[in-house]
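Running this now, will post back.
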Amino acid sequence: MMKRLPQTLVVTVVFLVTSGATSATPPVAAAGATSATPPFATANYVAIDLGTIPGADSFGAAINNAGQVAGRYRFRDTRMSRAFLWDNGVVIELGMLGGTESGPWDINNAGQIVGDVTMQLGGRRAFIWENGVMTDLGTLGGDRSQALDINDAGQVVGHAELGRSSHAFLWEDGEMKDLGVLPGGTLSSAYAINERGQVLGESNTPTGVGGGFLWENGVMTDLGSLGGPTGVYALNEAGQVAGQYGASNRAFVWDNGVMTDLGTPAGLDALPYDINNAGQVVGCTYVPYTSKNRAFLWENGELTDLGTLGGPYAQAFAINDAGQVVGHSDTAAGVRHAFLWEDGVMTDLGTLGGTESSAGAINDGGQIIGQSETVSGEIHAVLWRVVDPVEDIQQVTDMVTELNDDGTLNSGQGNSLYQMLAGATTMLHAGNTRPAINNLEAFIHHVEAMMKGGNPVLTPEQGQPLIDAAQSVIDLILNL
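Update: finished.
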């Protein structure tokens, strides 16, 4: 299952997503970063603006199950890109190996990122980034390579130049291996790898029929075709493949040697973007050369139209193992918004204050990555997550624990703060939001008192983050 669709510290800007409401004024971003105006949004989600750097827009590329995001900055004047990692509010630029630009394609659950760099003298080089170090993966003898996917074992796939051709590769343990081509072919590329080490890709063929392959343990298997050339898009852990075949662009699922047409209605082409580990496929049907796209979900032989946000257009790009689907759709107002589809309901995820947004990937925790226009017209990468005030109170509790453990607070001072936070949590579990807010407000007043007087217990640098974090929880509760 694909999880995808650029050393700067950025303060995360959080926007509540509740119908018809806007959030409180966002905090000011750190120097060198820009943020957005609070957006209008939808139920029970919070939109986190991942920010950008001067002169650039930002885009999310991939997200792992820890909520780490691989993305890129793209400069508006040159269109050049720089890869970045966003990790719980901290943004780190990945570097460029001395080249001119870099872009990420995927991130695994260990936080390893793969992509490619444009070199000073031309050509592209595949890279893997890990723990602050970007490593050139090399080539198969030419000047160009590109890494497109990585599994949790750190195996990387992509394609690399070989003479006047390009072949699919598997990189592991510092070595790039040529995966070859289908019989009679000359070109190949690898697009995805699962945790079993199965590799999905394409190769040209002498007849022009087929072309999709699954490579495993040294054997490249031709997926065949139901007629015409075959393109592949996604691979799950069971080795099931979603793809497209024929001049009429029909969608298929390949499973253990059997290719099944998804049953697209007559007159429509179909593009399958993703497949989860339950074998559910999402994508869009469309009339060629028009904007008449409709998002679909295929499962158990049935193709379901997911609807729209009120307009005529929708596309689904990704699905997680819980069956949650993300993409974008036109609204009744004629603008395009990111959506989450779940249990038959399509939810508008809103924007960062601008006109349009799009969601491109979702992890198994329901965290969604995409991008949105801001009030100023910039495009910012955005992370949507479910609102959970209890979880956020726990984060405030953890902050108090750090001050308690380092001796800043004595046991009595720490316990008094713990009691207020525990009271807020208890009230939320009971559904009593007003008493929960009262406890959080008492916490804020208590912290403020600790920052005052001739011998304050807390410095502004220690106390203000506690106040800001507690106030953010209050804002979330008020807008639920």
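The mean pLDDT is 89. More later if anyone needs it.
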